[in-house]
Design goal:
Layout: E1 3-8, H1 15-29, H2 36-47, E2 55-62, E3 65-74, E4 84-91, H3 100-111, E5 116-118, H4 126-133
Parallel strand pairs: 4-5
Antiparallel strand pairs: 1-2, 2-3, 3-4
Helix pairs in contact: 1-2
């Protein structure tokens, strides 16, 4: 049986918990992911009790094994910018296609107050899940990296 767990700013997440999630995301996001250090920064932001914005994590486990994880950051804004940004979601490669990603997304949508934005590469297979749930592509994202 798959069990969904959540962590938020009220849970006092430990370094070991964040490290387990970061390792999982780094491994299972593969080419669509970021360096582990960046994933840890995202988790620090989502779970820091001293931040105004914060966020949360949703995990799926079976027999204690982590099968999927999602990290949502609150933006601290609303209206012109969505209140939440889904930064990371991954499911164990051996468990994909079993509805785990959908369950994690459903829980995250219920937990989020306000709208949710996410970024996805055009060739990422997860794009189909996002579109099935109701995400639309309103903008083309452009960045200037300094």
């Amino acid at each position: 049986m798959i069990i969904l767990e959540t962590l938020s700013t009220i849970d006092s997440a430990t370094y070991l918990q964040k490290n387990e999630i970061a390792d999982f995301l780094f491994h299972h996001l593969s080419q669509y992911g970021d360096p582990k250090e960046d994933i840890m920064k995202c988790l620090d932001y989502a779970l820091d009790q001293n931040l105004h914005a914060g966020g949360f994590v949703v995990m799926a486990r079976q027999n204690g094994k982590l099968l999927g994880a999602l990290v949502m950051n609150k933006t601290g804004m609303s209206g012109y910018i969505p209140e939440n940004i889904l930064v990371y979601i991954a499911v164990d490669a051996e468990q994909r296609g079993k509805g785990i990603g959908g369950k994690i997304m459903d829980m995250a949508i219920k937990m989020a107050n306000g709208s949710i934005a996410l970024h996805v590469e055009p060739d990422n297979p997860a794009r189909k899940l996002y579109e099935r749930i109701g995400f639309t592509n309103k903008y083309l994202e452009m960045r200037l990296t300094k």
